[in-house]
Amino acid sequence: MAEVRSAFENVAGDARPSGLLRIAVTSIAEQFLSGPLIASFAEVHPGITIDVTVTDDMFDIVAAVQASGWVR
Length: 72
What we know:
Layout: H1 2-12, E1 19-25, H2 27-33, H3 36-44, E2 48-54, H4 61-68
Parallel strand pairs: 1-2
């Protein structure tokens, strides 16, 4: 319960977004993310790390995340 209370206090306070943002896109969509868009996002949200996966292979993103061991 303390974790939930702390999370609400962080949201209500001056807390800035932080953490890891994982994005999986095709090579076509990657063109729209590259350059100014990602750079401006990173400048506005310095506490967020962006992990972009570019692939044209068909894959199950949920299975890929679970296989990587990264499950929250």
